[in-house]
């Protein structure tokens, strides 16, 4: 791979560790295709060396892509050392300016090996437990233009940061996920939930996500988290203000920047 992309991956890894931002790369200093963006993300993860605990997808639905100015979905890794369960107090210095997003994630009960045909919706549903979560999302790039916005987000680990997950819910298929009562936000500032075309069938999104990862040669193992995208308009976290989330009667989560 060309030297410019190697430098970009290195700069992103350093910014990830330090909680800093770098200037938006231009010209040949940024990826020119999805394959190049994936390469930068892969190299960034390799340089971090912390291990991967799962995968996330952003802008999975066309309505969300249009609203956010993307030309396709944005996959990223869930880094193992940034997974928390139930609640988390995170250093403000590392996550300043990051947003909280509510997400339906799932956890694989067993590995899904690559094969010649995609896994069906029913096969995927039987292979996972539901794990509601909060994504703490942010960019290491100071993006000022819309040109190549999607490619830059992919390169920057899908603009991912950390995740707070609930415990596994095994009997989740009895639930109406799109109708489940969700309340979340900071004191005096509730989140705005997506509605209508911005809320699709999360299991279909999951199946498409799994197919895309397997086509890229990604191995999916038992215990991996797979998050299917935001259920709400992102809400910027404020230092010292807890962000609480309640997913019906099945899960309560909290994240606080300290």
Ends: how far apart? 39 Å
Spatial extent as radius of gyration? 17 Å
Order of helices and strands: HEHEHEEEHEHEEHEEEHEEEE
The helix count comes to: 7
Helix/strand/pairing category: alpha/beta
The coarse silhouette is: globular
Uncertain residue ranges: none
Report the major sheet: 8 strands, mixed
Overall mean confidence score, pLDDT: 94
Q: Fraction of residues in helices?
A: 25-40%
What is the tally of beta strands? 15
Report the sheet-strand fraction.
25-35%
For this entry, give a set of tags.
alpha/beta; eight-stranded mixed β-sheet; 258 residues
Describe the structure.
- The chain contains 7 helices and 15 strands.
- With about 260 residues, the chain is α/β, with parallel strands linked by helices.
- Strands 2, 3, 4, 6, 7, 9, 12 and 13 form an 8-stranded mixed beta sheet that branches. Strands 5-15-14-10-11 form a 5-stranded mixed beta sheet. Strands 1-8 form a two-stranded parallel ribbon.
- Strand 14 and strand 15 form a beta hairpin.
- It starts with a helix and ends with a strand.
Topology:
Layout: H1 3-18, E1 22-23, H2 34-48, E2 52-58, H3 62-68, E3 74-79, E4 83-85, E5 87-90, H4 92-95, E6 99-108, H5 121-126, E7 128-137, E8 141-142, H6 149-155, E9 162-165, E10 182-186, E11 189-190, H7 202-215, E12 225-230, E13 235-236, E14 243-247, E15 251-257
Parallel strand pairs: 1-8, 2-12, 4-9, 5-15
Antiparallel strand pairs: 2-3, 6-7, 6-12, 6-13, 7-9, 10-11, 10-14, 14-15
């Amino acid at each position: 791979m060309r030297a410019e992309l190697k430098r970009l991956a290195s700069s992103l890894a350093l910014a990830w560790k330090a909680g800093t931002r770098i200037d938006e790369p231009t010209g040949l200093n940024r990826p020119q295709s999805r394959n190049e963006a994936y390469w930068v993300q892969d190299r960034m993860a390799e340089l971090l060396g912390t291990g991967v605990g799962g995968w996330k997808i952003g802008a999975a639905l066309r309505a969300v892509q249009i609203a956010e100015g993307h030309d396709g979905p944005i996959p990223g890794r869930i880094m193992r050392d940034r997974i928390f369960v139930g609640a988390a107090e995170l250093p403000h210095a590392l996550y300043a300016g990051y947003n909280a997003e509510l997400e339906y994630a799932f956890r694989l009960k067993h590995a899904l090996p690559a094969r010649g045909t995609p896994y069906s919706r029913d096969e995927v549903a039987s292979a996972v437990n539901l794990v509601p979560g909060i994504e703490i999302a942010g960019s290491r790039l100071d993006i000022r233009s819309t040109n190549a916005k999607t490619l830059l987000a992919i390169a920057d680990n899908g603009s991912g940061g950390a995740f707070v997950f609930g415990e596994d819910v095994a009997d989740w298929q009895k639930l109406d996920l799109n109708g489940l009562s969700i309340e979340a936000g900071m004191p005096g500032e509730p989140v705005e939930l997506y509605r209508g075309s911005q809320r699709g069938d999360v299991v279909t999104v999951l199946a498409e996500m799994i197919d895309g990862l397997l086509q890229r040669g990604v191995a999916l193992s038992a215990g991996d988290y797979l998050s299917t995208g935001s259920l709400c308009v992102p809400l910027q976290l404020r230092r010292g203000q807890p962000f609480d989330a309640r997913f019906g009667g099945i899960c309560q989560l909290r994240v606080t920047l300290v």
